Amino acid sequence: MVIGVDPHKSTHTAAALNAGTNKTLDTIRIDASVSEYRRLLVWARRFPDRRWAVENAWGLGRHLAQWLIARGEKVTDVPSTATARVREPSRGGRRKNDTIDAAAAASVAALHGDAVPVEAEGASTVLRMLDERRTNLTRQRTRTVNQLHAVMRELLPGGVSTDLTANQAADALRRLRPSSPVEHARKELARDLVADVRALDVRLKANQQRMHDTVADSGSSLLDVVGVGPVVAARLLGRTGRASRFRTAGAFAVHTGTAPIEIASADKSRHRLSRHGDRQLNNALHTIALTQVRMPGTKGRIYYDTKIAEGKGHKEAMRCLKRRLADHVWRIMIADERRHTGRAGSAGHSGATTKSRAAGSTPHTSTSDQSLPEPATAQPTTKPAPAA
User: Fold this and answer.
1) How far apart are CA 333 and CA 285, in angstroms?
2) What's the average model confidence in pLDDT over 340-360?
3) C-beta contacts of 151-156 below 8 A and 24+ residues apart
4) What is the dihedral of CA 200, 203, 204, 209, to 10 degrees?
5) Side-chain half-sphere of 280: how many Cα atoms within 13 Å?
6) What residue spans define the domains of the chain?
7) Residues annotated as region Disordered (predicted)?
8) Contact status, residue 20 vs residue 36, Cβ threshold 8 Å
9) pLDDT tens, residue by residue, 12-27
10) Which of 63, 105, 221, 311 could link 367 by a cystine bridge, Cβ 3.0 to 4.6 Å?
């Protein structure tokens, strides 16, 4: 029995679907409140062998999905695009209502395999929130600094240097002697902006420290990799979540947008840069690659120099390095996941494998910060990780 849920901000609609006959047996509509959640669960207990299919379980359905998981229920996430594919041919005429959407979510989970298991929130969720908070703080700081530069340009001939710090701006303001009420107002505004910049710097520093503590508490080995600091590690872990949900390192590379796309040509096969995938993860891998290239002696720099010697340009060599790093980072996260769960088959349920489809050698699960390892043999993730 599959119970599909179409969540909204104020109400949720559930439909119980017989997976064998694809027939809707019963429906219920509840308000979005804990007391109504309990009523929904009481209604669902008439179906002993049940699983839940929540549309957009990481969006409007997040609270209900996590509430159900905390009570031992099996919950899967169904993307809204998948329910639309089911609803359109079965109903036609673009008919749509909550009951139809709930039944479509259940149908997708039961028959089409587009549903993804939902797990209880943990460290990766915390890191993702911290990463989003840091992004917002950084943007706010940039806007404040730009405002400060504009005011200082009106107070001082030529303004100030672009690498201005809060202390330098404060020193410049102390030496400034306003000669009119307007300049007095500008100086006070500049002081307020300097105070805002300092406050934002304190918040950013605290945010980074919390990222470091959360990554360390999670047992991740990513901080041992050259170019991976607390901010990059938090982005990788927060946006990836459970690494074993990707069946191969190649699937992770596609998700991050580091896998090249093969295109047809008149006389030969060519590849182009992928502009799809998670751009935040792509940015994190680019940061790692750029850091390693700037550090002579690292294996990343050696690999980059090898590609340059083969005749590739800087951008091509960087894309090759990012592709290798995607494999390396994914395998580290797989190894950490095994150690954290305490069983070798932590990824077995998803059928993940450490075999890479990338051309050339691929990294293994070593956590050395100085290496892009030798070619890896094909190993399913249900086997113990090789010794570093």
Assistant:
1) 14
2) 50
3) 151/186, 151/189, 151/190, 151/193, 152/190, 154/186, 155/183, 155/186, 155/187, 155/190
4) 160
5) 15
6) 2-117, 123-218, 224-350
7) 340-388
8) no
9) 998 888 877 778 888 8
10) 221
CB 294 within 8 A of CB 286: no
What pLDDT is recorded for position 191?
Answer: 93
Encoded amino acid at 201, one letter = D
Band the pLDDT of 344: cuts 50, 70, 90.
very low
- For residue 348, which of 322, 294, 384, 315 has the smallest C-alpha distance? 384
Joined together, the tokens standing for residue 355 give 């075999």
Angle at which helix 123-155 crosses helix 181-217, to 10 degrees, equals: 160
* pTM score: 0.76
| Residue labelled with tokens 């580290």 | 332
* Residue 284 CB contacts under 8 Å (≥ 6 apart), including other chains: 232, 235, 236
pLDDT at 383 over 80: no
Are 237 and 219 in contact, with CB atoms under 8 Å apart? Answer: no
Joined tokens for residue 182: 């307007």
**Overall fold of domain 2-117:** Nucleotidyltransferase; domain 5 (3.30.420)
